[in-house]
Amino acid sequence: MSISFQIDATQNAARLGRLATPHGVVETPVFMPVGTVASVKGVSQDILEELGAQILLGNTYHLYLRPGVEQVRQLGGLHRFMSWPRAILTDSGGFQVFSLNELRKVTEAGVTFRSHLDGSSHFFTPESSMEAQIGLGADVIMAFDECTEHPADRERVQQSMEMTLRWAARSKEYFKAHKREVPWARTAEVCPAGHVGTSVPGQTQGLFGIVQGGMDPALRKESAERTIEIGFAGYAIGGLSVGEPRALTREVVEFTLEHLPSDKPRYLMGVGTPEEIVEYAGLGVDMMDCVLPTRAARHGLLFTSEGRVSIKQKRYAGDQEPLDPKCGCRVCQRYSRAYLRHLYAANEVLAQVLNSIHNLSFYLDTMRAVRHSIALGNKAQFFPTEHSRAR
Amino acid sequence: MSISFQIDATQNAARLGRLATPHGVVETPVFMPVGTVASVKGVSQDILEELGAQILLGNTYHLYLRPGVEQVRQLGGLHRFMSWPRAILTDSGGFQVFSLNELRKVTEAGVTFRSHLDGSSHFFTPESSMEAQIGLGADVIMAFDECTEHPADRERVQQSMEMTLRWAARSKEYFKAHKREVPWARTAEVCPAGHVGTSVPGQTQGLFGIVQGGMDPALRKESAERTIEIGFAGYAIGGLSVGEPRALTREVVEFTLEHLPSDKPRYLMGVGTPEEIVEYAGLGVDMMDCVLPTRAARHGLLFTSEGRVSIKQKRYAGDQEPLDPKCGCRVCQRYSRAYLRHLYAANEVLAQVLNSIHNLSFYLDTMRAVRHSIALGNKAQFFPTEHSRAR
Q1: Given this model, what pLDDT does residue B324 score?
Q2: What is the pLDDT of residues B309-328, one digit of tens each?
Q3: Mean pLDDT of chain A
Q4: Residue B183 CB neighbour total at 10 angstroms
Q5: What pLDDT score does B12 carry?
Q6: How far is B116 from chain A (nearest CA, A)?
Q7: Residue B388 — pLDDT band, cuts 50, 70, 90?
Q8: Of the candidates B46, B321, B322, which has its C-beta nearest A334's C-beta?
Q9: Could you say which of A81, A330, A333 has the minimum Cβ distance to residue B339?
Q10: In chain B, what residues touch A319 (CB-CB under 8 Å)?
């Protein structure tokens, strides 16, 4: 078996589910912290465990360049390499390559791109993306897609969608033929200190398809239906957060979700703010990821139950209160706003560490509360207006 | 009372002691991690506690510039500001100002210097250094001294030493008149989350004198004797690690220690490597501090029971072993050399965090073992040659 998904409760469109993976069960709706190159920037794995992170996202493009897929594969896969015993999802590299703009060239065969690190030339295809993701050994891996730029005319969006569908079929075909090559499928694995649990031999990864189709309802519908026809363990909504207004993002998510099967996990890629992840969970999204909590932390922007706090502001220099009085994270339990403000102003690396821990805690607590609420059948409380109030 | 010191055991010149401070007892010989601006770079306070750090060093010069003494004083002093319940020592600012070279001007009254941050002009005197250190509220504070440059001729060294003696007397006088102004002397203090224990009202800081005298045995002797005459709670050996050869450092330490009272703590400022701190503890030094463990960590240089490891080397890219198989720190218990090498190569901030934790653990474990050894009466094992073997 690979992964399986079951729904335990629903509340309107929202679903409380369990995604069983070779590295543990993930309760959904879930927020996945982004660990670009096998590290959630500034936060150690034991703290991620303490925060209750159930699944991390790794970026295939970055890991492919450094330390390299073969290196990670030889070391037993990502879990063992980074000593993370819980679930991992990798993207296909398509979105990252898309972001390179001038450094890439797309053909039917695949994408030629130049490394942002050293300018060296590389070629990604659906097959090589699968090969890389199998070698990295995440629990959930993604079909190789083209993220259509925005704005784009209908013809361009349709052509791009068609190619993504052909790439999806090629991704699935390669995966079917090679899925037994995942590093942990063959042997029980234990990291040096025993932190990574054993995997049951014979288990494989779960492959998700990605729905494209730009901002066009008909194309989104077609993309969804034809992706489902190919058949995947779960379905992602791609091609969003590419510069379109937020209201449009929501609209596209809403009409795309209508065409996704209710018995499979639905993954909305690359969102969002704390309010957005609550909103999308309410619409029936099961999985989300975003760099926002860690990236905002590096810029001193902190999410709290009382709204956003820009900790760099001088007004916090003498503020003895915890960052978020309602937060139980180790940062709010120990340090004052004055100290956090000082660390940021003094450009201390501990600022990034503590800010990231708190923001991730806020995101993970938020999703935990959403799940609790769906279980209780009371989703309404998770559309607070407070969050959006800037301080 | 301020601080007190008692010796529990000796082994040749080495002493096992206990320095009682208003924020807990410090077992000596002790290594003090450096928390320049109220943060040991990259390492959070709970981890420092876990590592067994008993006392941290803060830099008055840096704290004076940012966040400012008055700010820290209003927030209850350094302990409360940074949520560190254990002991703290601050330097006088003299050495840091000395390091500014072109940005300073020394007169009998004090030192005019320009901030390395914004070029603004400031004036430090023995009195203002005491005022700053009382405001910051460390448990142990240092007299304001001039760190004599090296090399310097005898006349220059003598003149500098004489001025340091006059500054020591002025420091003590100011301290005597103002020691009750320490922020925690007046009230019981508890940080927001209760991490900082109460201080007994009426307690004061301990003021240490600093012996100068360059590399000249006679001047060191004279400096020691006249500093002792002024009378301090402990004595530091300053003016070393200023570019002189290591053998000379050791020689100066050895003949200076002969002239320091055996019933007071002896603090050797700014050393050293793991081998050196063991060696100096063997000579009878009770307290040491150095940025080396954290600075080296940032450059990927790691201290282990098997010697130094330059983790950036490609040879570690596939090395599944823990960094130091004999180390019990959370880094060695969880991560492989391959992962640490990757984090460093990928310029991930977690590299600095984990490397710093391990190096501090190695230093603190080393001193713990030294203390254990003195207690057992077997010091010899702490002069290993292994440490100096580069890998």
Answers
A1: 98
A2: 999 999 999 999 999 999 99
A3: 93
A4: 22
A5: 94
A6: 13
A7: very low
A8: B46
A9: A81
A10: none
Contact A39 B348 (CB under 8 A): yes
CB contact under 8 A, B42 and A350: yes
What is the three-state SS of A273-329? CHHHHHHHHHHCCCEEEECHHHHHHHCCEEEECCEEEECCCHHHCCCCCECCCCCCC
Residues B112 and B97: their CA atoms lie apart, in Å, by 9
Which has the closest alpha carbon to A5: A39, A28, A23?
Answer: A28
Chain A interface mutation, best of B350, B356, B358, highest count of A Cβ atoms under 10 Å: B350
Q: Using 50, 70 and 90 to split pLDDT, how confident is the model at A195?
A: very low
Residues A285, A267 contacting (CB under 8 angstroms): yes
- Nearest-CA residue of chain B relative to A37? B346
Residue A87 amino acid letter? A
Closest chain A CA to residue B328? A193
Q: Around B7, how many Cα atoms within 13 Å sit in the side-chain half-sphere?
A: 16
Q: Which residue in A46, A191, A354 is closest to B44 by CB distance?
A: A354
According to DSSP H, which parts of chain B are helical?
A: 45-51, 60-65, 69-74, 78-82, 94-98, 126-136, 154-178, 183-186, 217-230, 246-257, 274-283, 292-298, 337-345, 349-376
pLDDT at A96: 85
Least confident stretch, A77-86, A187-196, A297-306, B79-88: A187-196
Per the annotation, the verdict on A145 as an active-site residue is: no
Q: Please state, in angstroms and as integers, the Cα–Cα distance from residue A51 to each residue in A18, A35, A302, A362, B256, following that order.
A: 19, 15, 16, 9, 51
A116/B346 Cα distance (integer angstroms): 13
Contact A39 B346 (CB under 8 A): yes
Backbone φ and ψ for A382, nearest 5 degrees, come out as -95, 25
User: Which one-letter amino acid corresponds to residue A107?
Assistant: T
For the question of residue A91 being annotated catalytic, the response is yes
Contact B348 A81 (CB under 8 A): no
Of residues B45, B75, B348, nearest to A338 (C-beta): B75
| pLDDT range class, residue B293, cuts 50, 70, 90 | very high
What's the alpha-carbon Rg for chain A, to the nearest Å? 20
Instruction: Give yes or no for residue B177 having a pLDDT over 80.
Output: yes
C-beta atoms of B339 and A193 within 8 A: no
What pLDDT band is residue A98 in, cutting at 50, 70 and 90? confident
Structure token digits, residue A64: 């492919």
Chain B contact set for A322 (CB, 8 A): 192-193
Please, how many CA atoms are within 13 Å of residue B149, restricted to the half-sphere of its CB?
10
Helix axes A246-257, A274-283, angle to 10 degrees: 20
What residues of chain A lie within 8 A of the CB of B43, using their CB? 350
- Per-residue pLDDT at B202: 78
What would the mean pLDDT of A346-364 be, rounded to a whole number?
98
Of A385, A387, A364, A369, the closest CA to residue A303 belongs to A387
How many interchain CB pairs under 8 A, A with B?
Answer: 124
Nearest CB to A349; choose among B320, B352, B354 = B352
pTM assigned to the model: 0.94
Question: What average pLDDT does the structure give for chain B?
Answer: 93
Chain B residue with CA closest to A44: the answer is B350
User: Which residues of B are less than 8 Å from A317 in CB distance?
Assistant: 67, 71
Name the region of A132 (left: φ>0; alpha: ψ -120 to 50; beta: rest). Answer: alpha
ipTM summary value: 0.94
Q: Rounded CA gap, B130 and A172, in Å? A: 72
- Three-state SS string across A95-107, please? HHHHCCHHHEEEC
